Amino acid sequence: MNRKLRRLKEIAQQDPADVIIGKKGVYEGIINEIKRRLEKKGIIKVKMLKSCIAVENKDRRELAKYVARLVDAQLLEVRGRTFVLYKHRKKKSSQGNRNVNRFFM
């Protein structure tokens, strides 16, 4: 793991969980929320409640990998029932650059 990801993971570990998966388990609403937060922050912390693990009938690591695949993110770490996901954010092109290009054409 490179230094940047290691540093981001350390920061994420100190923060509270961004998303908590509860007794409904993994469903479309939770997946959409995780995707939204990943787009916004790039790295998030997700906590699974005991009821989630019971409902999904999967091991906590399997469940973390499953969620990572669904949101197309990299699973950085699993600690207890909490895991950290990372997704490289695409930089948005600024409006100013397009205007400059048009001006010089």
Extended strand count: 4
SSE topology string: HEHEHHEEH
Oligomer: single chain
Distance separating the two termini: 43 Å
Q: In the CATH scheme, what's the topology name?
A: Translation Initiation Factor IF3
Range of strand content: 15-25%
Protein structure class? alpha+beta
In round numbers, the mean pLDDT is 84
Helix % is 40-55%
Question: How does the major sheet shape up?
Answer: 4 strands, mixed
CATH class designation: Alpha Beta
Number of separate domains: 1
Low-confidence stretches: 96-105
User: Given the structure, what is the number of helices?
Assistant: 5
**CATH architectural label:** 2-Layer Sandwich
Task: Tell me what the structure shows.
The protein has 105 residues and is α+β, with helices and mostly antiparallel strands. It contains five helices and four strands. Strand 1 (19-21), helix 2 and strand 2 (43-48) form a beta-alpha-beta unit. The longest helix is centred in the N-terminal third of the chain and has 14 residues, at 28-41. The protein is globular.
Write the layout of secondary structure elements.
Layout: H1 3-14, E1 19-21, H2 28-41, E2 43-48, H3 50-56, H4 60-71, E3 74-79, E4 82-86, H5 95-104
Task: Offer a quick outline of the entry.
This protein is of the alpha+beta class. It has five helices and four strands; from the N terminus they run H-E-H-E-H-H-E-E-H.
